[in-house]
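Table S2 (continued). Query chain:
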Amino acid sequence: EIINFLEIFTAKPEEVATRWDEIVDERKLEHILPDRKIFVAVGEHKIALDERKLIAQTLGEGEEDKSAISSSAPSMSDEQADKIQKLVEEFKTDKEELIEALKSGTVDSNVIQRLIDLLEQSSDVTEIAQTEKTKQEDDTTKQARTSEERYRDVLPDVDIINKSEKDVSLAFQDLSSDDTMTKARAAAWILKQDTEKVVTNAFGVICSDLPVRTRKLAAVVIAKMGNKAIDLFLNRINAGMSGTILKEFLDVADLFLENPNLLSKLSEIIMNGPSDAVIVCFHFIRKMTGKNVNPIILDLFDRVSGKMKIEVLSLIVEKKINEAVPSLIESIKPVKIWEKDDNIQLQAQICKSLGMLKAYEAEDILLKIASVPKPWTMIKPKPESIRVSAIWALKQLPKSDRIDSLLEKSKKSKSVAIRKVAGG
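Corresponding output:
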């Protein structure tokens, strides 16, 4: 703010006198009180005040007030002269405050130089600034000389410096830099380092609470180093880890899709990992393409329960995994009348899924479910919702005499839902 004021201060009075208030607002001079705003420079300069002009000189230490009324200006009253005298005295105070700030050494050297340029008319300020610069340079030289004396008899150990400069962890810290070039250079440098050291540090970054962008970049470095680095990294992952760490790993696992060991690691998590990591693993697998992921999905179907099982079932249908048919058939087999028939909603969904998969091998079980068993078989009838789904599924399969016969019987059922799905 004071620099802005001083820049205005050095302008010609006629350039600012008529729009002083506008300039104050533009430059946002909030802490310099209005009665301190005055144009004074070395030598004689004009001061604008109520359309009158006054000749003034800058007051220095020990100087007397030599301000005088210009012969070309109208005479001023004592009150106006006192006002000018007060303004000049206040400027002198401000000038002394600035000098004290410079003496304190708290002002940056670049700012000092700028103030010198602005106040080059004032020799005392310039001398102080230059003295301060010289003092700072002397302190630096003195400090360097003291260091030389302290270590004069000590043999240098360059290896320590070299080792610290090759600390891989420091380079990984640079992956969090806001500067793109710094991150790029750090990544390029890491790629040239020892693989095991890189993997160790990358693991700490990836399985952390750092931003996902930084963790992804660490994973990219491992991926670029090749399968050896990826294998070393995957060997560090195990299903016994916490759900949080495994989820952090799964955030970046897509960068290792080309590595054949990734699938076995995902299978391990699905079969033995904590439930929250299993859910994340499912969403990760859902994005994967190719049939090599199908066995993992089947394992997942066997592991999960409830709503999650229905979601995995929909993925089986989506990917047309017909290898799941035997397991699905087993899940909907009729039970004896003294046995409990669980998961009604899931069974109904499985029947529909078998139809969508065009699983002709499921025809027998679907016919049994859709029909009402004879009393002497001791088979418990399936709930209506399951029978309706079974009939719908049979209509999706290749036509057969048995299916047509069932549909005709179902059209005469007492159940409206069954008659409707059968086409009656």
